[in-house]
Specification:
This protein is α/β, with parallel strands linked by helices and about 325 residues long. The protein is about 35% helix and about 15% strand.
């Protein structure tokens, strides 16, 4: 499982429960600002849950927009971290929970596996989207949740260098690092040297030799700035981070699928599943890409636009509103 914003997604620390207050600027909002279709009442209400950070809110409003067009009366509800959001999804809106959550495939699969089999259980998530979806669907079905079609958009661990460093050393993939012979300092969270998808994974999967490791943060400003100013040559970032390109950084392709497939996937309370809902959400998944996610995040994180307005504009642009 990826290193993530633990209060928002991974939710591994019990302390995060106290931080995850229900409701925020997005809570209780209905739709994406578009007018409901004349048949909206015929499909009924649907509640979309979100984690309390920008990207999840954008995704929730994207789901809201396509469901509104499909004839639903959608409401976006910011719930909190996964320890709160997953039980809310099991309960469904009939049980004061939520009906749909934009989830991250590998992380959600790992969460469900840990919940069922214990903290030390080996995760069935991998870099194979199809296999991870199959494993995740089995775990989700057991608790009354269905996973629909994952999108190409993913928010997962990635490793970045500066564009200048990549050009100078002919680097486009992580495999290319094997031929690099200069100093190579890796930057990332303190646990990186012990995590199989971080330093050990790069060494074993890609044959990379690091000259040193510098403890920074998990894909945050310290790591990105350290890469940009040359304190480290390569660092752990997140693939949908809008600040990567802004700092002149380039993500190297994970060509051997070291990272688990954290594609955005609609997770739906099984009682809320219908042909119309499935078609609407899968239609969005068929269009949404990681590049789209980066651009949408930039509008919210950098330009300070509202997630619902950003989502509405994207759906209009793609002909989905």
């Amino acid at each position: 499982m990826r290193i993530r914003r633990t209060t928002a997604i991974a939710g591994l620390a019990v302390a995060t429960l106290a931080l995850a207050a229900c409701g925020s600027s997005g809570g209780g909002s209905t739709g994406t600002g578009t007018s409901a279709s004349p048949t909206a009442s015929s499909m009924g209400a649907v509640t979309i849950g979100a984690f309390d950070f920008g990207e999840s809110k954008i995704l929730a409003y994207l789901y809201s927009g396509v469901l509104e067009k499909a004839g639903y009366e959608p409401t976006v509800k910011v719930v909190g971290n996964r320890e709160l959001t997953e039980p809310a999804l099991e309960a469904g809106s009939a049980g004061s929970g939520v009906d749909v959550v934009p989830e991250y495939l590998a992380t959600f699969t790992t969460f469900l596996n840990t919940k069922k089999n214990g903290a030390d259980a080996t995760s069935p998530a991998s870099g194979d989207v199809t296999a991870t979806l199959e494993a995740g669907q089995t775990l989700a079905n057991a608790v009354g949740i269905s996973l629909l079609t994952p999108s190409a958009a993913a928010d997962q661990n990635s490793f970045a260098v500066t564009k200048d460093f990549a050009t100078k050393n002919n680097l486009t993939t992580l495999s290319d690092l094997k031929t690099y012979s200069g100093p190579l300092v890796l930057g990332g969270p303190a646990e990186c040297p012990k995590r199989p998808f971080c330093q050990p994974g790069l060494e074993q999967t890609y044959g990379v030799t690091f000259s040193d490791f510098k403890a920074l943060d998990a894909g945050g400003p310290l790591t990105k700035q350290a890469i940009a100013d040359g304190t480290v040559q390569i660092g752990l970032v997140f693939s949908s981070d809008s600040g990567i390109a802004d700092l002149g950084l380039q993500v190297l392709t994970d060509d051997k699928n070291l990272q688990a497939a954290d594609n955005v996937v609609p997770a739906v309370n099984t009682k809320a599943v219908s042909d119309a809902l499935t078609a609407a959400l899968n239609g969005l998944s068929a269009v949404l890409t990681t590049d789209d996610l980066v651009a949408l995040n930039a509008k919210v994180d950098l330009d300070r636009e509202d997630p619902d307005e950003v989502a509405a504009a994207y759906l209009t642009e793609k002909g989905l509103a």
